[in-house]
Design goal:
By secondary structure, the protein is α+β, with helices and mostly antiparallel strands. The protein folds into two domains: 45 residues; 89 residues, K homology (KH) domain (GMP Synthetase, Chain A, domain 3). The chain is built from four helices and five strands. The strands form two sheets. Strands 1-2-3 form a three-stranded antiparallel sheet, with no helix packed on it. A two-stranded antiparallel ribbon has the order 4-5. A hairpin with a 7-residue loop joins strand 2 and strand 3. Helix 1 crosses helix 4. It is elongated. The two termini are 32 Å apart.
């Protein structure tokens, strides 16, 4: 990873497959994540649902930002994200796709002023465009070999 704005968060195992995610000060409270049964106990959202929530939230915020800048009054914004889990050619589970439906509640007059935002907002969503183009992920396992009796 080089260049750009950096951010960091940490995960700590609680038990089973439940982790606490700690964000930097001022970036939000801790978040509990877990796997769904039978692996975990669903004590929090699992990684696939977090990714779907990140895409949906980012698109919602991007659309809302553009509409507000265009002085389009949004009474309510509802977003629904549907995902599919599929198996790849090696039989491994993967997110096969996400379908996002955004439903801003606006008057007919306001709806007519939404055009430019509808053309632009997706391009400004950091998460969605990163997922669409693929994100480089560098993985390193530290202390993989623990001496017997250590701990």
């Amino acid at each position: 990873m080089s260049g750009g704005e950096r951010f960091e968060l940490g995960l700590t195992l609680r038990d089973g497959y439940t982790f606490t995610v700690d964000f930097a000060p001022g970036e939000g409270p801790p978040l509990v994540v877990d796997e769904l049964p039978p692996l975990g106990e669903a004590n929090g959202p699992n990684p696939a649902r977090l990714l779907a929530a990140a895409v949906g939230s980012c698109l919602s915020a991007s659309l809302l930002y553009c509409l507000r800048k265009s002085r389009v009054e949004v009474a309510e914004l509802r977003t629904k994200v549907e995902g599919t889990i599929v198996r790849n050619e090696r039989g491994r589970l993967r997110i096969g796709g996400l379908r996002v439906r955004l439903a801003p509640e606006v008057t007919q007059e306001q709806r007519e002023r939404m055009g430019r935002c509808l053309d632009l907002f997706q391009d400004f969503c950091i998460v969605t465009e990163s997922v669409r183009t693929g994100i480089a992920v560098d993985v390193e396992v530290e202390n993989a070999l623990v001496p017997v009796g250590a701990g």
